[in-house]
Amino acid sequence: MTQLASSRAYSRGDVERVVRDVLVKHFAWAGGARSKPNPLVVNISARHVHLSPEHLEVLFGKGAQLEVQKELYQTGFFAAKQTVAVVGPRRKILPEVRVLGPCRGASQVELAFTDGISLGIELPVRCSGVHHDTPGAVLVGPKGVVELTAGVIRAERHVHMGPADLEYYGVKDGERMHLRVESRGCTTVFEDLLIRAGKNIKLEVHLDTDEGNAVNLERATRVDLVKPEPCACRHQ
Amino acid sequence: MTQLASSRAYSRGDVERVVRDVLVKHFAWAGGARSKPNPLVVNISARHVHLSPEHLEVLFGKGAQLEVQKELYQTGFFAAKQTVAVVGPRRKILPEVRVLGPCRGASQVELAFTDGISLGIELPVRCSGVHHDTPGAVLVGPKGVVELTAGVIRAERHVHMGPADLEYYGVKDGERMHLRVESRGCTTVFEDLLIRAGKNIKLEVHLDTDEGNAVNLERATRVDLVKPEPCACRHQ
Fold first, then answer.
1. How many CB pairs under 8 A join A and B?
2. Is the ipTM above a cut-off of 0.85?
3. Contact A188 B188 (CB under 8 A)
4. 3-state class of B45 per DSSP?
5. Could you tell me how far CA A131 lies from the centroid of its own chain?
6. Contact check, Cβ <8 Å, A185/B209
7. Shortest Cα distance from B90 to chain A (angstroms)?
8. Chain B closest CA to A121's CA: distance in Å?
9. Residue A229, pLDDT score
10. A73 closest CA partner among A159, A146, A147, A188
C-alpha cells in the first residue's frame, strides 16, 4: 500500500496518528508510559508430580506431610523434599520424580515428551487438571503404591498473569498469546500459550524441558509475549 | 491503513491487483499454478557422528569400510551399521552413537542440547563443518580411540533444497526461512532455518530431537516453510 499512501495529501488526522504512533513507540522503548508492570519470567517445569492428600498418605505413610525443599516463583508453591518413582506400562521407570506442593484434589504426573518416550507412554497435551482420556501410571513411594488410572499429561505451555499483566497486554484469562524466544541459532515462536490469570499471580511462562532445550533457554537473549493478531494490512 | 484505502476510488490497476491476488491464492490452495514442486519433508536428525577416513580406521581397524544399515532420504547418504561411544569431559558417556556415511574430510559429532547436558558439554549451534571454537570429545570404537579436539556441535537447523524449490520459494542458497509446525497444543515457528541448496538435493528440513519432541513432530498436522518477510504494512 506504500504507493497508494504516498500519492495523496496527508490530512491533519493522518499526521496526528503518525505523531502519536512515534511517541508511543518512543515511550515504550524508553521504559516510559507503556512499560511493563512486571518482568517477563520464563521458567522450565521439569517433570513432576502433584498428589492428592489420600495418595500422599498411601505413598509416604499415615499423617505424612509434604516438606519444603525449595519455594517456587509463585507464592505458596514449592518443590517438596519427597520424590516418587513413576512406572510405565512396560515396566520402564523414572526413579525420582519430584513432588510439588501443596497437595491437590487429584493426583497428576507432568512429563516432557522425551520422558513419555522413555516410559513408553503417548502423552496428551493438556491443561493442568483436565484428565479425561489421559493415560495412567503406577507411582511408587517408600510406604506404598498408587495405581493412577488417568492424569499423566504433557502440561500445555501457559503463562500465569496478574490483573496488571492482563491490562498491559490487552488480554483475558483463557485467551492465548505467543512467546518468542531469541536465542543464538535457535530463535523460536511458541504459539498459543494459554493465559491463566489470578489475583495474586506473578507473570510467569511455563515451558517443559523439551521446549526449553529446543531454544537453549538458559542462554536466551530476549523473550517477548506477542498477541496473536494478523498484521493490520491483512484486513484490507 | 484501512480507512485511507477505503476513502478513495479504486483505479483499474488496483482492481487488477486484487483479482490477481485472489486468483493466485485460489490456484495455490487448489494445487494449481503455484503448487509445490516437491513435498516438504521434515525429519529429525538424532545424534550421530561423521568420521574422516583416518578416524574410521583408528576406531574400526585398518581397511575398515562403513556398511549401510539404512539409506537416508538424501540420495547417497546412509546410517551405517557402525556406532561409537562418545565420552564427555567428566567421563559421562553416550554408549552407542550412530555413524553416518559416507566419510567426510573432518570428523564431527552432532548432538541435541539434551545430549549435551547429559555429557556435560555446552554445545555451540553451528552449521555442519564449521568447527572453530567448538568443544571436543573422545570417541571409542572396537579397535581404538580418537581424541577430537573440536567438532562437537548442535547442528543448526536447516533446510535442504534443490533448484526447483529455490525457485518456488523465491530464495537463495545461504538465506533463511522459518518453519511453522502445526501440532496439537504445541504449534511452533522455528525461525531462520539455513537454506543449503544443491543440484540433486531433495527438499528436506532437519531438526534435532529436542526440536522434534517440542512439537511432537510425529503427530504434527501441517508443516510450512515461511519466508521471513515483515508484513507489507510495516514498510509504510
1. 101
2. no
3. yes
4. strand
5. 18
6. no
7. 21
8. 13
9. 76
10. A159
